[in-house]
Specification:
By secondary structure, the protein is an alpha/beta fold. It is built from 14 helices and 15 strands. The longest helix is centred in the N-terminal third of the chain and has 18 residues.
């Protein structure tokens, strides 16, 4: 049964990408499931016809929070639209993977990548029930109307949980049901490839995510479909008029969020925080470069840099002092160990040292960590509000772009 469903889906999508049809049998421009999901600004800089090759039921990249430097995986990536959008959002120091089983889809995706000039994306051939990536390597999993097509959704969710890092996010769009489908539709193999028969009830989706281990589960309805009229025969071939009437109000698309729990590392047990040494400079430079941060001024101010050490440097943060103020800078964590409490510990230690030295104001310039540092009470200010002795003495004074968010904490 699983092989039959998989092969039917593969054939349908191979034909769909060849004919530029949607998952439900018609062009994406006027399809009630796939149409009008992306704004023009979303696809700016991508091939003009890329939306026509999109077969999704939502826009997960618009709803998922993606940050610079993160690694994203799109399950069932199709022609690559969501992968390329994600790659743009995570920036050159992040990466976006696309996984698809259909050779024709992958060929179009790679062509779209070449045409877009986006380098930080990679397309993999394989099944979403057996993801060809290592454990704990992905920050965010996205997917667009694909998991409903799998005949082994439990395995898909288990695999997604496996490859996510501790604290990683599951943020997908999918077709779900508000009530049970008639048996005739459940057995309709055409409807399965047409995004209907394989869909789960909302409560079933939540239960399956819980069993795997996900937390913070949230299901948000984004579209409710009326497939009862005769026009729906174009989009849902193989269903009778009676079956379409029975589907009325039962079929929706939803945005589904969940998290893999954090596996926090314990300071002084699994790692230590200490002052940086000159022998740490190569790995500090590597960490900063991988995170898109400047190495300027690090060697000259090394005595004011802290590192997290776990059989080697796994994190770093710098403090620049001037007058009664301090600038926090150059915070970077090894990609494999993010979201495990190391960054928080480095910030806590830096602020503790600053207080001991009589510092009354702490500042930070950031493009990626506004939400993170706000938990300590940092708040937005104008760049002109940073004291001249701080900004002029900082190695960042001429390096941080004008778009950087300026934040302050009163100690």
């Amino acid at each position: 049964m699983i092989q039959d469903i998989r092969e039917n889906v593969r054939k349908k999508y191979s034909q769909a990408i060849t004919d530029k049809l949607s998952c439900c049998g018609n062009s994406t421009s006027n399809n009630p499931v796939t149409g009008n999901l992306y704004e023009i600004n979303d696809v700016d800089g991508l091939p003009e016809d890329i939306i026509k090759a999109s077969f999704g039921c939502g826009n997960p990249t618009a709803l998922a929070q993606l940050y610079a430097g993160e690694v994203v995986l799109d399950l069932g990536s199709g022609a690559g639209l969501d992968v390329l959008l994600s790659a743009k959002r995570v920036g050159p120091y992040g990466k976006a993977y696309g996984l698809d089983m259909t050779g024709e889809m992958l060929a179009v995706a790679k062509e779209n990548q070449n045409r877009s000039g986006i380098l930080n994306a990679e397309f993999l051939k394989g099944h979403i029930e057996s993801i060809p990536l290592s454990d704990n390597t992905i920050d965010v999993i996205i997917s667009n109307c694909v998991i409903n097509l799998s005949a082994d959704k439990d395995r898909v969710l288990q695999e997604g949980y496996r490859v996510l890092k501790p604290g990683g996010r599951f943020a997908i769009s999918d077709i779900v049901l508000t009530r049970e489908l008639p048996e005739s539709i459940q057995k309709n193999i055409t409807a399965w490839a047409g995004c209907i028969a394989g869909a789960l009830l909302e409560r079933e989706y939540q239960e399956k995510l819980l069993v795997v281990g996900f937390t913070d589960i949230e299901i948000i309805r984004t579209r409710i479909y009326d497939v009862s009229d005769e026009q729906a025969t174009v989009f849902f071939p193989g269903l009778t008029e009676v079956e379409r009437q029975e589907l009325r109000g039962a079929l929706i698309s939803a945005f589904i969020r969940a998290k893999k729990p954090n596996d926090m590392l314990v300071e002084d047990n699994e790692y230590t925080i200490r002052t940086a040494l000159e022998t740490d400079l190569p790995i500090i430079d590597k960490l900063l470069t991988e995170n898109g941060l400047t190495t300027s001024g690090v060697r000259e101010n090394l005595a004011n840099f802290l590192v997290a050490d776990y059989q080697g440097v796994i994190g770093v943060i710098g403090i620049e002092f001037a007058g009664n103020g301090a600038m926090l800078r150059s915070m970077a964590i090894s990609k494999e160990l993010r979201k495990r409490g190391i960054a928080s510990a480095l910030v806590e230690r830096s602020l503790g040292i600053s207080r001991q030295l009589g510092v009354t104001e702490a500042y930070i310039l950031t493009n990626t960590a506004e939400k993170f540092v706000s938990r300590w009470g940092f708040y937005r200010i104008q760049r002109s509000e940073i004291p001249k002795e701080i900004i002029s003495s900082s190695a960042l004074s001429n390096l941080c772009p004008s778009t950087s968010i300026c934040m302050k904490l009163d100690l």
